[in-house]
Backbone:
């Protein structure tokens, strides 16, 4: 069986490594083959950009050579796919090379598009790329007081980041003795401070205790740099001295261009993870690329990838899949520089976050290093 | 005018309302969206947001399996 993995991010890498170990024998005898195509030779641990923005990590710490993360049996090429020919079971790459497959896994991720909100990119900071995270730190470290506004575009990757960045900045400002000169103003698209009800129930009192003000039902419409204010679809207007803007996201352009899904999100079966529609039988979609109504987060890609790898290995060995994805997501929630909690949930069960502790934060810091074992499919 | 369905059953995060808001951005004025939700809160929080932003509620029903079917029209 020729298995083609498109995308060398968290979903594609975890899938390929898990699968390679499960079908080690079949790879050796040539009964199965795994090929991975990626747009880059680097693999980035994106959750680390939050720490870059706070001056607690540098971008290079978060990068590894993709080839070094892959099991030896995986055939890796830096050659992004430009054309998907799903009816004919092949793709065409930028180089012009055509790859045929029996099964394709699409895990191309998402991209932040701050430019989709007028004025956002040039008047805000965020931690959705290494470059933007460094700029964030520069702006934050030069901040001498005033109003810091946090605002959120939809849909966006990493649902915890609005809370995490707010708590992290609070401690950053506190450590610099600027709390009495700083006002934090948090805005959020729906009628509570986080999408997860139980997380919102925990976070709102934390905000109250810290004097962090918040406005809900606030969906940013435009940022007016001249007057230093952000306006909402709902008619609100908030002035800022420093704007932290979580940008809206889309899937990759190549997905849209090939007509695989509106806005780059591919319609996906929530349990089998197969693409919906006529040609979906041998197409698996992972991570941010799906249109599933669950978190766009590395954790989602991780658990989907494990399920998919187990299923594909079973298909190779027995002819049929064995697992159904249950919607599992596990997200750490950094509640400042030295405390954290977490949210674990699936399609059936909402999370029940506990009070943040130093121990969970320590584990999160350890996980930031252990991630490379996760990518290798070991953890 | 186009119609679309967003199946947000079992969605805790981002949740039905966030799914609805994100989808509305891709729609044209006059298009309708049917949101499927198993979250009882959707029957209240969707109309609250729709009213505040100035769109139009078309219909809200709960089927025999407990799923809410909430129809919204983009008005601006």
Residues:
């Amino acid at each position: 069986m020729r298995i083609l993995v498109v995308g060398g991010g968290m979903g594609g890498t975890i899938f390929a490594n898990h699968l390679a170990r499960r079908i080690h024998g079949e790879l050796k005898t040539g009964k199965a083959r795994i090929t991975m195509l990626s747009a880059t030779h680097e693999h980035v641990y994106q959750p680390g950009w939050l720490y870059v923005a706070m001056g607690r990590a540098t971008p290079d710490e978060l990068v590894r050579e993709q080839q070094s993360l892959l099991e030896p049996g995986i055939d890796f090429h830096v050659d992004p796919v430009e054309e998907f020919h799903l009816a004919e079971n092949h793709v065409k790459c930028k180089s012009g090379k055509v790859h045929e497959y029996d099964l394709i896994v699409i895990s191309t991720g998402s991209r932040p598009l701050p430019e989709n909100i007028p004025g956002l990119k040039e008047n805000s900071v965020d931690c959705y790329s290494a470059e933007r995270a460094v700029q964030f730190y520069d702006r934050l470290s030069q901040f001498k007081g005033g109003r810091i506004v946090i605002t959120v575009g939809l849909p966006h990757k990493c649902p915890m980041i609005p809370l995490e960045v707010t708590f992290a900045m609070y401690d950053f400002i506190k450590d610099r003795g600027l709390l009495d000169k700083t006002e934090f103003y948090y805005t959020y698209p729906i009628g509570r401070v986080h999408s997860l009800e139980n997380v919102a129930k925990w976070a709102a009192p934390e905000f109250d205790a810290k004097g962090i003000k918040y406005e809900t039902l606030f969906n940013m419409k435009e940022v007016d740099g001249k007057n230093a204010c952000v306006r909402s679809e709902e008619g609100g207007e908030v002035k800022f001295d420093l704007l932290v803007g979580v940008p809206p996201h889309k899937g990759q352009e190549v997905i849209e261009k090939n007509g695989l899904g509106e806005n780059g999100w591919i319609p996906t079966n929530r349990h089998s993870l197969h693409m919906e529609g006529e040609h979906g039988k041998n197409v698996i979609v992972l991570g941010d690329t799906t249109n599933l109504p669950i978190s766009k987060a590395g954790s989602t890609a991780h658990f989907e990838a494990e399920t998919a790898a187990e299923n594909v290995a079973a298909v190779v060995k027995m002819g049929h899949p064995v697992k159904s994805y249950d919607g599992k997501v596990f997200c750490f929630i950094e509640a400042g520089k030295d405390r954290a909690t977490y949210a674990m949930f699936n399609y059936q069960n909402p999370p029940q976050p506990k009070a943040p502790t130093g121990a969970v934060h320590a584990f999160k810091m350890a996980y930031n290093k252990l991630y490379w074992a996760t990518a290798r499919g070991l953890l | 005018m186009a119609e679309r369905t967003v199946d947000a059953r079992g969605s805790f995060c981002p949740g039905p309302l966030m799914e609805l808001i994100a989808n509305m951005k891709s729609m044209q004025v006059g298009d309708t969206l049917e949101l499927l939700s198993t979250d009882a809160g959707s029957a209240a929080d969707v109309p609250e947001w729709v009213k505040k932003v100035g769109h139009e509620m078309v219909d809200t029903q709960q089927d025999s399996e407990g799923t809410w079917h909430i129809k919204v029209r983009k008005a601006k």
